[in-house]
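Q: My collaborator sent me two sequences in one message, no labels, and asked for predicted structures for both. Can we handle them in order? The first one she listed is below.
A: Yes, handling them in the order given. First sequence, followed by its structure tokens:
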Amino acid sequence: MFELLDSYLLESSPAKGAVVAALLASKPSGEHLRPFMEGIARLGERTPDLALLALRLAAANLRADDATVLALRDASQRARSGDPAARESYFQILRGDGTSSTP
């Protein structure tokens, strides 16, 4: 379900508007995702990338605290810049092998 979001966060493709539309259409379940989805519904394409990163962490059942969101953002930005190791760092964080802990 979050493959499109991962693609956007790692490759800047597809466009954010398409990702937001797909997220809203898929209606991810889970009480812990509801606040994120409500924010995305209100902001649409203007949803900040940091909010999308926090949603992705929450979807992986990880705490979206400042340090973890920033670590995921760093991996995302490095991947977008062509760093070959950054993609693995991104997924390592989402597996809980990085800086995060479970909520």
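Q: And the one she listed second?
A: Here it is, processed independently of the first:
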Amino acid sequence: MEAMVRDGLRWLEGIEDGTLGTGDLYNLSQKMDPVLIHLIIKYLRKKYPSIKPEAAAVMARLVDLTSNYPEIVKHMKEAESDPVSEWFADTYNFGEFYSKPQEMLELIVEKLES
């Protein structure tokens, strides 16, 4: 569980802060569950709506990643209807985790592993 949470947090922060390049993000995504990727991207989209000035950089990194690696989009679409994705969307509000993303990832990973 710890490795999956650590990778998820590194991936999220890599997109959010620009600390990982597109290739590194893709390579890391190959070790991650598609549900985790889907929910992280959904989290980032909710946290950074287009009206926020800081959203431009985050969304540019997401567009770059998904444009260069379209299989990420494919996996995300498949993960949308996964029971864990639906459970999280029905149970939680992403805003609850803006200041504590690791807690969100721990909940998701725990559910994925159960």
